[in-house]
Design goal:
The chain has about 280 residues and is mainly α. The chain contains twelve helices and two strands, in the order αββααααααααααα. Helices cover about 75% and strands about 0% of the residues.
Amino acid sequence: MEKEIKKWGPVFYIPTFLAFIIGFIVPFFEGLYLSLCKFTTVKNAKFIGFSNFIYALKDETFVNAFIFTLKYAIVAIVLINVIAFVLALLLTRKLKFTNFFRTIFFMPNLIGGVVLGYIWQILINCFLTIISKPLLALNATAGYWGLVVLMCWQQIGYMMIIYIAGLQNISEEVLEAAKIDGANSWQTLWKVKIPMVMSSFTICMFLTLTNSFKLFDQNLALTAGQPFHQTEMLAYNIYDTFYFRSGPQWKGYGQAKAVIFCILVVIISFAQLKASKDKEMQ
């Protein structure tokens, strides 16, 4: 059997490896080079050094987009994971219609981000009109909370499923032993359930963190960065710089922002994974 695997294994992993090289590695290094150039197309790129990065770091809209994204990420990560875990606890108690509620909570995750953005834009603008407040295009606070609510509504069901899987993997014998030892429901939750689903927390925290920083289509559909770039997130800021400003210098600026964005997401993601893994080991 091992000989057969060694013989035919390359047939399966070499195409995948080549696709990874062509689809990710080559474009990544090409993009890295273009971030050091002034260009309108790949073929007319002119090397100019690190001036694109200097501009990107001095660009107020990019800095504001980072601050806005960070504020959004902190609130969204906490809300999504807390609510998803609470729902998972409720839906593992063998209540009636459990499967129905799981389906209802998961369904928003199946709808495209652009569609959700426009749906919530209509709903929020209707609500703002009723209470005589400025619409999203002129209301940065409503835009911020609109994004938070939208993403909670979309992602809570997906994270809930992961937490449910983790809770269902806890042995009944362990829970029974905790009960025999005199642990109440609150103590069982904090001393038994939460420590035993830390791997689920790691996965959900990683997903919500990366999703928060990579958020684009919902931001585009809901607010498009309005008013005056105040609700612009990092991915949308890069898109706006690269595609909506004319001149060869803007392509380089957008590419430099994309490289900074990539490095930032990788660093934050690895830091979060390490912190979560250390918590799992404890």
